[in-house]
């Protein structure tokens, strides 16, 4: 799960979409960039004890059930962690639910990025809101065990809605079960374009604080259709291994830390490769 440094640079064009460039002024000796203050979070546990997550000051939890926690900020920001979506394999039908309680129907063979777009558009359609036009600024795979299916990190922009904005996060799509149902797992932080850059480190801190309660790993990640024989996921989901794979390996290892940190390092904002750390593609020392 190693991302190229140049990929990390492209990944975090969160705010105004301004690429770092070298100018005559930029080639002057750079001033040392101040260390970013750590994001302060207050621990919150869902009423059903399914998950615990840190909540930033001034933010409010608007929903928390079944391992998912949704919170909102004061400037239109939103962070969702641990949201599961059940899909049935088939042609995508915007606004139409799938059979047997599935949130939607979509092809299980579709690309991971296309599945994410379908889910985001379905969320809007089901809520009676304008359907966003989603553009990927960056997408990269995350290497996971086979039982977790395909996973990746992403940075997107969304237009065609009341408040255009940007988002970033983690998305996984698991394999079909015996009845052609499959689950997808989403963690996403989004914000209006004007405040997206400053929301990026907040979203990172919230993602890293997320943990599942006892027993909820198996509830969330076992097949939707109860198998008649032992599930291939059972040995994994019945232990703490899945938590390690999903949270430690994907959300807390260096590749994602570097990618998210690059947003704060000045890829959006300082306009100078001389003030950007080497790990983000610039020339300044790494923090």
List keywords for this structure.
3-stranded antiparallel beta sheet, 11 strands, disordered N terminus, globular, 287 residues, 7 helices, alpha+beta, 8-stranded mixed beta sheet
Protein model, in words:
Strands 3, 4, 5, 6, 7, 8, 9 and 10 form an eight-stranded mixed beta sheet that branches. This protein has a three-stranded antiparallel beta sheet with strand order 1-2-11. By secondary structure, the chain is α+β, with helices and mostly antiparallel strands. It has helices at residues 5-11, 112-126, 196-209, 216-221, 234-237, 241-251, 254-267; strands spanning 42-45, 51-55, 60-65, 68-72, 78-89, 104-106, 133-142, 150-159, 165-173, 181-192, 211-212. The protein has one domain.
Ends distance: 21 Å
Main sheet properties: 8 strands, mixed
How many structurally independent domains?
A: 1
Radius of gyration: 19 Å
The count of strands amounts to 11
Proportion of beta-strand residues: 25-35%
The coarse overall form would be: globular
Decide which structural class fits the backbone: alpha+beta
**Helical content (DSSP H or I, runs of 4+):** 10-25%
Helical element count? 7
Give the uncertain stretches in residue-range form: 1-34, 233-245, 248-260, 263-272
Q: What pattern of helices and strands is seen along the backbone?
A: HEEEEEEHEEEEHEHHHH
Mean pLDDT, to the nearest integer, reads 76
